[in-house]
Design a protein that fits this description.
By secondary structure, the chain is α/β, with parallel strands linked by helices. The protein has helices spanning 2-7, 12-25, 29-54, 68-85, 97-115, 131-147, 152-172, 183-193, 230-233, 246-250, 271-283, 309-312; strands spanning 199-203, 222-223, 226-228, 239-240, 255-260, 284-292, 295-302.
Length: 317
């Protein structure tokens, strides 16, 4: 458990779920003491990492308040799981299946949702292990259905209906469109929109990671806000100039390629991002935008300059 928490701090929610399982199951005191010792060891072992990682919370600043679909998805899974748990189960042993499966299904996601007003951190893949509880409960429900000895025809109809429901989302999850962003498409769009010597701006700066996978896409561009690259600064997105120095750097260029959030996305609001946006709005005009999955690539030119024909074609890409 300590190794799991060191690999991913949110695994600690599984330990809390196991504690609830032990409490509601009425296990002997030695088992509860063993769990308490485990908690103490993990707290001691995890504390240095928690303190260290708290200073890097900006790496997850992109996480916004959970949208309604996330709430509904979590609620639907919990509802189905609880429905399965309501049925009697022929399980031998001190710990019944609902007592094991329901806490691991409900608690990790619920705790992240409750933390959202303080710090939005709810991302379903962060607590993907909670699907273990859902799988156990759903498996028990399928087993009960099978024991009802329905006709083979009815069983085949149900099986095909389940397959028809699961196949489309399963195929969709294996496409680039299922991702929040497509870094390969973003890099290609930057390469096609830019000319050697252009300036490059990331709005916000954390999006520098999008083009980090393919450095050749930005090799001939000047990153206008960057003062220390990710490698030398030991960060994901590098370190940017102070807000007061960014406008002067931008104004040295007459043509800039900006990597931006898609329309309606949650954007960072700090002095550096405001300096970038304010300078572009005042001294530049938009010449064309390429939209790809999760991002917009926009070409800006100084207002005293004219858009060239190749810039105007960007809007049609």
């Amino acid at each position: 458990m300590l190794l799991a928490c060191l690999l991913h701090e949110f695994a600690v929610f599984a330990l809390a779920a196991h504690g609830i399982t032990l409490l509601v199951s009425g296990v002997p005191r030695p088992a509860l003491r063993a769990w308490s010792v485990t908690v103490a060891c993990i707290v001691v072992g995890l504390l240095p990492l928690a303190i260290r990682s708290s200073g890097e919370s900006g790496q997850v600043s992109w996480i916004a308040w959970p949208d309604p679909m996330q709430f509904l998805g979590f609620l639907a899974m919990v509802t189905v799981g609880m429905r399965c748990a309501r049925r009697p189960m022929n399980v031998r042993g001190a710990i019944q299946l609902p007592a094991l499966a329901l806490p691991i299904l409900v608690l990790p996601g619920l705790l992240l949702l409750l933390l959202s007003p303080v710090k939005p951190l709810f991302v379903d893949r962060y607590v993907l292990y909670s699907s273990i509880g859902f799988a156990l409960l759903l498996g028990a429900g399928i087993d009960r259905f099978h024991r009802r000895q329905l006709s083979s025809r009815t069983s085949w109809v149900v099986a095909l209906a389940v397959l028809a429901a699961l196949l489309p989302p399963s195929l969709y999850l294996r496409t680039p469109q299922s991702r929040h962003d497509d870094v390969i498409a973003i890099g290609n769009a930057v390469r096609h929109a830019a000319r050697p010597g252009d300036g490059l701006l990331y709005l916000p700066g954390r999006h520098r990671v999008w083009t980090g996978a393919t450095p050749e896409d930005t090799r001939f561009l000047t990153d206008l806000a960057l003062v220390q690259d990710p490698t030398s600064s030991n960060t994901l997105a590098g370190i940017e100039l102070p807000a007061q120095d960014i406008p002067a750097r931008i104004l040295k260029f007459s043509r800039i390629v900006a990597v931006r959030d898609p329309e309606g996305a949650h954007s960072d609001t700090n002095s550096q991002e405001e300096a970038k946006t304010r300078t572009l709005k005042r001294y530049f005009r938009e010449c064309g935008t390429t939209r790809v999955t999760g991002a917009r690539i926009t070409v800006y030119v100084r207002k005293v300059a004219l858009c060239r024909e190749d810039d105007q074609r960007l809007a049609a890409i």
